[in-house]
Structures are given as C-alpha cells and as structure tokens.
Design a protein that fits this description.
Chain lengths: 228, 323
Amino acid sequence: MGKLKILTKGLIKENPVLVLVLGTCPTLAISTQASNAIGMGLAATAVLLGSNIAISALRNVIPDKVRIPCYIVLIAGFVTVVQMLVQAFAPALNEQLGIYLPLIVVNCIILGRAEMFANKNTVVDSALDAIGMGLGFTLALFVMATIREVLGSGTWLGMEIPVLIDNNISIMTLAPGGFFVFGCLIALVNKISKGKAIKKSDFGCAGCPAAAACGKLKGAECGKESEA
Amino acid sequence: MSNSAVSNADQTKTSARKDGQMIVSVSPHIKDKASTSSIMLDVLIALAPALVASVVIFGARALLVTAVCVAFAVGSEWVFEKIVKKPSTIGDLSAAVTGVLLAFNLPVGIPLWQAAFGSIVAIVVVKQLFGGIGQNFANPAITARIIMLLAFSRTMTTWVFPDAVSTATPLVILKGETQQALPSLTDMFLGFRGGCLGETSALALIIGGIYLLARRVISWHTPVAFIGTVLLMTLLLGKQPEYQLMSGGLLIGAIFMATDYATTPNTDLGRIIFGIGCGLITVLIRVWGNYPEGVSFSILLMNILTPHISKLTRKNPLGGAKA
C-alpha cells in the first residue's frame, strides 16, 4: 500500500465513522454543533497520532497477551495530555465537550486502529494512518454537525442563518435527528463507493480488539459472523 | 376481516405481476370484494364528519391544513415511487388517509410548511423507506406527529381558536398546569375545546367509528379495550374519566390509528392486548408523564410490540403442530 493511499483511505474509503462504524457514541453526541465537531475531531486526531506512533514503535516490545491493557495505558496517557492542553488553552472547548473529552480513551477508533494497523505496521505508516483516520473522523463529524446545526438550530459555527433561525427543526439536534443524519450519510458513502468501500473481512473478527480472547478466531467460524 | 386483509395483500402482489404468469401463493385463498382502495375509501368517508366538525369549530383554515397534508402525502408517495421506479400506489388512497389523519393531529395554527414537512416524513421516512404499504412497522401519521412534536414543540402546542383566542387543552387543565376552567361536557362532546383539528369532536369521531364497524373495516376489539382501559384506570385513580374519554386524541387514536392493518396485531386476542397496552401507556403518560397527552406515544410503542403480540397470539391451524 502506497504512503499516499494510507493517508487518504481514512477520508472516505475506510472512513472510521461512516464505513468502519467506529466511535459512534461521540459522533452522535458531539455532532450538534459544527464548532464542537472540529474540536472533538482534532482532539481525537491528536490522541490517535500519539497512540499510533507509540504503539507502532513498541509493537515488538509489548507482549501479545497483555497488549490491550498496554494500549489503554498509552492511549489514556495521550488523552490526559490532550485534555490538559485543551483545559489550558481552550477552556471554552473543554466546557463544550465536557465528559466526551476524557472519554476519547474508550473511543473505538483509537483502540481499533491500534489493533488493526499500528501493531503490524511501521511508525511512519502508522502516523500517516492516524492522520488519515483522524481527519476522516473530523470530516464525518463536521459534515454531520453542519447538517444538524443548520437545520436544527438555524446556525452554522455559531453564525445565525436568516430564515432558518426562526424555522429550526429542533429534532435534528436531538438523538433521533442524529441517528437519521448518521444513517443518511452512511447510505451516501455506500452510494459513492458503490458498496465496495472495504471488504468486511478486512475488519471482521481479526480486527476486533477482543480477538485474542475470543474463541471464534481460532475456529472456522471466524469471518462468518462479521459477514452477517 | 383478517381474511380480507390477507387477500388484499395477495391482490396487490398479484397485480404487480404480468398477466399469464402462474401465481403460486400460500393459503388462505379466500377472496372477497374488499380491496385496499375500497377500505381506504371507507376510512376517508368515516373521517368526513370529523372534517366537517373541524371546519365548524376551527374555521376554514382547518380545511387548508388538511388539503396541504393530503397533497404533500400523496405527492411525496408519487415522487418517491417514481424515483425508486416502483409502481405507483397513490391510487389505493392510503397516502390520502395518512395525510388526513396527520392533519387531524395538528393544531389549526400550524405553519403550512411544517404540515408539509410532517406529511413528507410520514410517507417517505416512516412508510416508504420500510417498503411501502403493508411493510411499515409504525403508523405513519402517528410517528410523523411525534416527530413534529419534538421538532416544532412551540407551534405544535399552541392552541388557537379562529377568533385568535389562545386556549389550553382540557388535558393541560386537568393536569393543573393552568387556571382556566374546563369546558362543559356538552362542549367536550361536540368538540368546542382546545385541541388538534380532528380530535376534538367526540360526536363526529363516534359517527365515523360506527360507520367503520358497520362496514366491517375495523373490529371492535382494539377501540373497546383501549378506551375501556383508559376509563377504568382513570376511574380508579379518580381523574375524571368522563373528561379523559373525550380529551386529547383518545377517540381518534382508538378508532382510526390503533386499528391500522399493517401496524397492529392480526388476531382478536392480540388486538385486545394491543388496546389494553395502549390504554395503560396513555394513562401513565397523562397522569405521571411530562407530556399532557400520551395517545400517540402509546400507539407508537405498541406498534413496536405488534410483531411479538401477533406471534404470541397466533392460532394453530386445525390439526397442525403446536407452535
């Protein structure tokens, strides 16, 4: 896989939110305002970049059996750093993101990329993967948040949009609107990539963070489940 | 009636096939004259008294809101089926019924673009995205009303009479959230009270219900179980059952919405369970919930349980193995 391809595959072809369907919880929760989406996306990208580089560099050091706890400790470290930076330099963003900032620790995208990519690729490739995936996450969040904020609140990045501000459809900022826009965007990405975005087996059982502990991986059943 | 419903489904399936093809279908093979469009026409006829009452009570704008809803419901069904290249089903009148029912669940002062939005949501999102008539799991009009209630909470709860006097609905008054006096029982029965377009006139709705029962379009099970449960519960709780009966959307919900073929159980026992469930949820929301009215929520929640109720109450065929 070429370096450029590693960088760009996260944007659409293997978009972490819309194709891999990882990190759904922060996506639905944060995408009510475009400004929050950018903040959340960039914070997660920073953590992902740090964790992917560190995990890739340590991939021959970390014993396979305890790798998940090791990854979590590494990721939690980077999240703490990012959180402190945000608290120090962007307190307003910290206020807005609230609990979702420390919860980046359990964001599936970060653990997912560690398992799927960083622990079997070089440091440079892992860094490119992190940037691509992080930007893909940010892009998906931003598009979702734009649709939800414009229709739901009648504003965009905090700017009031005439006409829409008085006729906002407030359900778009609530959970049902989030799921609806999410589903529509997934459908759109499937349409663009003609449903061939990624082979399901590429991120099936083997890509699951629990694969080592799961009996299915050893048997022939693996892969069948993920096709379902 | 369940037979006729099944044979409808058969007919709509067969009509999509080309002539001369052999049709093999599962039993029952009973056919009768009823078709989707004849049933829907009956429902429209049954809704006519409520439409007349709404114009008398709320003025000509009631007719305008209803027309907009019907136009956008039928129009969006036609456009959607054109886009996805399916045979057009606007002739079966089901979209028109959805439009009328949605309009009857809106306040008269609703901005027309919001009414149009709700109609498009009802047809495209709730009905067509799940496969069109007979495939939708939830009642399109009810679901669209709930979506609109969440989307436009201000305009959806502003009750205005034609003389621009804003008023509270009897349910809000019953909940003690306002100091206004309850309307008299006669006004309640005739429909001169705050509320949605078509839900206020108990008289008109009951006339429609009797027509549907006489034409065997609906069975008595769901409405009786639904209304009976609400009456019994509010009587036990001392919450003025006579007002509860004629308040909010109970009658229109029990007669027209909880009897929809696609989204309610297809056995008599199932229909009774469905009605009791609707009644319980309605009273729980009315008495203890945040919202003054719970009929639409109760029907939507029971719609979701419908496949399970149908499965649990399914009759074993004579001589067949036990399920």
